[in-house]
Structures are given as C-alpha cells and as structure tokens.
Amino acid sequence: MLELPWAAERNAHLGGRGLTLLPLFFCGPTPRALVNGVDRPTLAYPLPYDPLQADPFAPARDDGGDRTGGRLAAALGRTRAAVLRDVAAGPGATTSALAHSLDVALATASEHVAVLRGAGLVTSHRHRSTVLHTITPLGMDLLDAAG
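RE: above sequence
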C-alpha cells in the first residue's frame, strides 16, 4: 500500500497494472496522479532542482527571505522575477505601478513585462490610457514551482 499525505481523501485502485513513477521539473509543488482511463497509472512528482548548486539535484537552497525567490531570480533575473511576483500579487497591475514598486524606469518595467509576455507568463490588455498586466496559468505554475 502506498500512502500519499496530499491525497488522503482519494483511493487509486491499480488493479495489478503497476505504477510508473515520473520525476518532472515542471509539475508544480505537489505530485499529480494519472490513474483512471490509462493503461499504466503514473505518478508525476516534482524533482528538486537548483541550477546554482554544484550538484543540481541536491536539495534546494533557502533564498534567505529574498522576495524575488532565489531560484526564480536565477532563472529569470531579479527584476523580472520581481515583476512576475508583483503582477501575480494583484489583479491588473499597470506598467507605472510596477515601475514604482520596483524603483525602475517606466521603459525598464515595460521591457521586462514584454519579455515575460513573450514567454507566455503574463498577458497585457489596454484599458483606456493604461495597460493592465495579469499572470497566466503558466506564470502561476512557475511561481508555485519556485516556491
């Protein structure tokens, strides 16, 4: 019997089919099970990964309370990580509000948002004279995976 603390309310009946364990970099913070309607039930689980360590598969380091998140900042850069977190924090962040919050020029905030938008992490919509930025599900998954 396999006990999974995050799935205490669910039972998965394997029926002798076995179970495939699948480590993934981008599956989110909790494991995901594919059991019903598949030939071979699969349990995808997050693989701890810190690219800044000599051994990338060693347990992830603590970011010391850095609001941009150590691993996320390493992947995106500190300012872009902060932009992504600020966009996720509130509905419809404006470019001006991001520039003010991060203490960067308006053009710098706009450029960082454009890169995040090109990567599919945020979307932008014009509302009268302002542009509102919102995080996409992919952006939220990236934030969740970064912790």
